[in-house]
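About this split. The held-out portion is used to measure sequence recovery: a designer receives only the C-alpha cells and must propose an amino acid at every position. Recovery is the fraction of positions where the proposal matches the reference. Here is one held-out target exactly as it appears in the evaluation file.
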C-alpha cells in the first residue's frame, strides 16, 4: 500500500503542478484550445497517442477482446498502429492543418460551417459532439476506477469522484499546452508500464512458449471444431474481430478529439516526425495491451465473466505491490490524457460553436465559459460512470460509432473532394447517430458491429448522396481549396552569362 499511495501522490502532484504552471499560456481562447497552433512533433504525437489509448483499452477492450479472440486480438493493435495512427497522420495531417488554418476553424463544427457554408451544421454537429463524448468519458472513468477499487479496496464511487477532481484541476488550469506537456510525460510512463506488464503476464505462466501452449488447450465456446482457437491467426470469430479493427482504427479518423491534434501542430516538418513517433507509440501500447489481454483466460476463472474485471484480476496476480503501483500510474496516465482531450473538445465546441451561434461572446467571457463547461462535462460524465450497469466497451462503442458515423465521411471528403455536398453531410450525421441510437434500444447486433457499420456507412453515403444532390457554390468551394495551391511569384534576375548564351543561340 505504501508504494501504491506514494506513486499516486507523486503523479497527482506533478500533474497538477504542470497544469497550474501552464495556466499563463492559456490566456486566450485560441491558446486554451489550440496552443497557438505551435505545438511540436513530440508533444503532438504523444498527445494523439495518449488520447487514442486510455483505461478503456487497458482494462475494457484488452480484457474483453483478448477473452473473445485470444492472440488474434493483436491484429487490433496492428490496425491501430498502421491505420489509426500512421495512415491518419499521412493522409489527414497536412491537409487538416492547412485547411483548418485557412478557414480559421478551431473545432470540427466550425470546420463544417466554413467548408460547407452552413451555420446550422455548426450548431447540430456541436450538440452531437457534446452528447456523445459524455459516454466516452464515462467509459474512461469506469475503466480507471475499477482498477483503483481492486487495488485499494475502496468503494468504486470514491474512485470516480477522486479522478474527477484531479481531472478538473488538470484540464481547467492548463489548457491545451499544459495538457500536451502532461501527455508527453504520461506517454513515457505508458510505454514503460505496458512492457513491464506483458513481461509479468508471460512470466506468470512459465514464459512465452508455455503461456502459448496453455492457451492453445482451451476450447472456444463459439468455435468448438477449431483446434487451438485462441492461438490461431484470426481467432474463433473473424467477423467480429474485423468489426473491432474497423471501429478502433478507421473510426479515429472521424473523432473530433483525435483530428484536433492536427489543427494545433506547428508545421509540415513536424507532421512527418509526428507520423513516425505516433505509429511506434501505438504499436507498443495497443499491440502490447491486446497481446497481454489474450492471456486473460489463464488468470480469470469466474463462472460469470465480467469483462471489466479481467485485467485488474491479472494485474493483482502477476505483480508485487510496487509493480501494481506503477501500473496504477500507467492506467491513470492513459486515462487523464484522454479525459483532458475529451473535456477540452466537448466544452470548447459547446461554447464556441453552440452558444456563440445565438449570442456574441467576447474572448475573455468565452474562455471563462469554456472552463465552466469543462466542470459541467466532467460532472455529467461522473453521474453516468456511477451506473453499475454500464459496460466499458458498450459505452465506448456507442460514442465512437455515433461520432465517427456522423463525422468521418463529411470530414475526410471535405478535405479532399470539391464535390462533397451539404445534403450528403446531413445524411451521414442522421445515419450515424440514428443507427447507433436505434441499435441501443432495439439491440439487433453487438455495439461494436453496429459502430463498424455506422463508420463504413458514412464513407459510402457521402459520395453517393453527393453525386445526386445540388453542389455548393463553385466560388465558395474554390476559395476553401485555394489553400492547397497558392500561387507564388518568384523574381528572377538575368545574369550576364545567360545574356551571352542567348545571343549566341
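Reference sequence for scoring:
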Amino acid at each position: 500500500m505504501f508504494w501504491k499511495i506514494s506513486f499516486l501522490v507523486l503523479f497527482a502532484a506533478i500533474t497538477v503542478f504542470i497544469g497550474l504552471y501552464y495556466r499563463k499560456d492559456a490566456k486566450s481562447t485560441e491558446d486554451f484550445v489550440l496552443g497557438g497552433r505551435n505545438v511540436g512533433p513530440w508533444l503532438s504525437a504523444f498527445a494523439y497517442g495518449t488520447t487514442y489509448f486510455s483505461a478503456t483499452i487497458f482494462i475494457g477492450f484488452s480484457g474483453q477482446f483478448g477473452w473473445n479472440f485470444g492472440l488474434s486480438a493483436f491484429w487490433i493493435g496492428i490496425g491501430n498502429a498502421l491505420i489509426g495512427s500512421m495512415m491518419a497522420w499521412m493522409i489527414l495531417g497536412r491537409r487538416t492543418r492547412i485547411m483548418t488554418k485557412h478557414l480559421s476553424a478551431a473545432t470540427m463544427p466550425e470546420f463544417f460551417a466554413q467548408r460547407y457554408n452552413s451555420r446550422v451544421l455548426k450548431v447540430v454537429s456541436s450538440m452531437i459532439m457534446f452528447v456523445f463524448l459524455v459516454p466516452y468519458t464515462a467509459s474512461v472513468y469506469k475503466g480507471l476506477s475499477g482498477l483503483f477499487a481492486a487495488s485499494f479496496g475502496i468503494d468504486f464511487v470514491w474512485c470516480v469522484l477522486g479522478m474527477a477532481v484531479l481531472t478538473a484541476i488538470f484540464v481547467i488550469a492548463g489548457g491545451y499546452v499544459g495538457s500536451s506537456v502532461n501527455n508527453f510525460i504520461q506517454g513515457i510512463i505508458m510505454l514503460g508500464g505496458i512492457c513491464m506488464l506483458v513481461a509479468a503476464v508471460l512470466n506468470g505462466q512459465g514464459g512465452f512458449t508455455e503461456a502459448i501452449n496453455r492457451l492453445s488447450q482451451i476450447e472456444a465456446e463459439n468455435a468448438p471444431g477449431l483446434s487451438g482457437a485462441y492461438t490461431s491467426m484470426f481467432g474463433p470469430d473473424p467477423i467480429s474481430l474485423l468489426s473491432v479493427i474497423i471501429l478502433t482504427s478507421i473510426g479515429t479518423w472521424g473523432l473530433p478529439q483525435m483530428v484536433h491534434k492536427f489543427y494545433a501542430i506547428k508545421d509540415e516538418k513536424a507532421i512527418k516526425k509526428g507520423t513516425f513517433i505516433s505509429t511506434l507509440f501505438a504499436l507498443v501500447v495497443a499491440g502490447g495491451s491486446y497481446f497481454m489481454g489474450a492471456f486473460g483466460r489463464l488468470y480469470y476463472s469466474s463462472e460469470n465473466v465480467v469483462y471489466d474485471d479481467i485485467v485488474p484480476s491479472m494485474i493483482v496476480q502477476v505483480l508485487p505491490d510496487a509493480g501494481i503501483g506503477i501500473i496504477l500510474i500507467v492506467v491513470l496516465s492513459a486515462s487523464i490524457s484522454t479525459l483532458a482531450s475529451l473535456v477540452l473538445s466537448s466544452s470548447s465546441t459547446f461554447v464556441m460553436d453552440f452558444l456563440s451561434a445565438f449570442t456574441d461572446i467576447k474572448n475573455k467571457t468565452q474562455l471563462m465559459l469554456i472552463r465552466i463547461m469543462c466542470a459541467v462535462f466532467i460532472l455529467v460524465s461522473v453521474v453516468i460512470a456511477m451506473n453499475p450497469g454500464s459496460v466499458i466497451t458498450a459505452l465506448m462503442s456507442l460514442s465512437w460509432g455515433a461520432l465517427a458515423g456522423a463525422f468521418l465521411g463529411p470530414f475526410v471528403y471535405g478535405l479532399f473532394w470539391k464535390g462533397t455536398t451539404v445534403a450528403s453531410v446531413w445524411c451521414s450525421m442522421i445515419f450515424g447517430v440514428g443507427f447507433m441510437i436505434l441499435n441501443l434500444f432495439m439491440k439487433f447486433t453487438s455495439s461494436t458491429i453496429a459502430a463498424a457499420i455506422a463508420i463504413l456507412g458514412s464513407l459510402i453515403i457521402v459520395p453517393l448522396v453527393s453525386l445526386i444532390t445540388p453542389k455548393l457554390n463553385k466560388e465558395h468551394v474554390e476559395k476553401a481549396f485555394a489553400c492547397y495551391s497558392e500561387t507564388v511569384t518568384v523574381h528572377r534576375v538575368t545574369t550576364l552569362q545567360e545574356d551571352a548564351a542567348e545571343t549566341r543561340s
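Annotator remark: The chain has one domain: 2-15+40-388.
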